[in-house]
Amino acid sequence: MTVEQTSQAYGKRADEYIDVVGTMADTSPIDRDRIGAWARDHSAGQILDVGCGPGQWTNWLHQQGIDVIGVDPTPEFLDRARRDYPDARFVAGRAEALDFAGLSGILAWFSLIHTPPHEVPAILARFAGCLEPGGGLLLGFFEGPELVPFDHKIITAYYWPVDELSRVVSEAGFTVTGRFARGEPPQRRQGVITAIRCP
């Protein structure tokens, strides 16, 4: 599927999505601790929250004193984010077309789960190009034993084996610094990769 198809699918169900998983009350303390610690480690400059959706993580990081911008291609999400979090910054944009330089960090929290796997390497290379040397990447994804699609409630998504996605991250110009996974059936396993841009 294309970025436009994914954006349209989320746009049609934006209010429903926000009601179910679109606020900080819906997030895990484990995730808040991990993302908060990562952001503080890379807070010397600007951080992008790529695929920020309705903006809850962008706003939360902003409240922690982080210089952060939320980026998303879905107009309905951006409208809601700007309304709910007027003090945070949000811009329209797509992961594969980011036009930034010298960033301290990129948070891509489950924002590439719908991206066809063959397109992921180029997006990660784009991320590397936007970061300063030593800049951080925090990537959230659905972890599974095989790289296969599954029927997500919004639109098709993909499971990634953590070893395979770590390799793709490394080949895009990063050094992987951490790999985590949690969750047991019937829940989907969630994976996290942290990395820094190579010099």
What does this protein look like?
By secondary structure, this protein is α/β, with parallel strands linked by helices. The chain contains 7 helices and 9 strands. It folds into 2 domains: 1-107, Rossmann fold, CATH 3.40.50; 142-199, no CATH class. 35% of the residues lie in helices and 29% in strands. Strands 1, 2, 3, 4, 5, 6, 7, 8 and 9 form a 9-stranded mixed beta sheet that branches. The radius of gyration is 15 Å and the shape is globular.
Question: Briefly, what is this?
Answer:
This protein is 35% helix and 29% strand. The protein has helices at residues 3-12, 14-21, 29-41, 56-63, 75-84, 120-130, 162-171; strands at 47-50, 68-72, 89-92, 103-109, 131-143, 148-150, 157-160, 174-182, 190-197. The longest helix has 13 residues, at 29-41.
The name of the CATH superfamily of the largest domain reads: Vaccinia Virus protein VP39
CATH class identity of the largest domain: Alpha Beta
Contiguous uncertain segments of 5+ residues:
none
Main β-sheet, in a few words? 9 strands, mixed
